[in-house]
Description:
Blueprint: E1 2-6, H1 13-16, E2 21-25, H2 56-62, E3 65-71, H3 79-87, E4 92-99, E5 102-107, E6 112-120, H4 125-142, E7 144-152, H5 155-162
Amino acid sequence: MKMIIHDLGEEFNSSLSSEGSSVFYADGKYAPCKGCFHCWTKHPATCDYKDRLHEIATFIGLADELIIISENCYGSYSPKIKAVLDRGIGTSTPLSAYMGGLMHHTLRYGKKDIMKVYVYGDISEKERETWKLLAQCNATNGGWKNYKLNFISSFKELEEKVL
């Protein structure tokens, strides 16, 4: 299954969806993570909040391919996308293990194929460097075997690369 998380606007849902894909528009109409870690311990991969992100960790965890489309916000995800990713922390467990010489949380769903990040908006050279490190770390922590980071200058370019 392919999962697409984007902040482009609801009108882009139909153009981003394809067979075997799940599209989530990050509109910000949900609560931010409260840091209770119940999705780790009390009821794994399920959030206490009963909103649109209640089971986002399961959807992300079961995806073979994750595509994130985000506006650049100081070298990171937009706040709406960041909130979705924060609420998806239940894809891992509270247990830790060494991976690549570093400590990481063990994965609840195992390794997955690829994470692709598409970034749009004004992006300085320093922000590009931050994005490179962020995408690499997110891929490692999320258990993605591969990752790709793309800087997009127009929706037409996004259509050519994603759709």
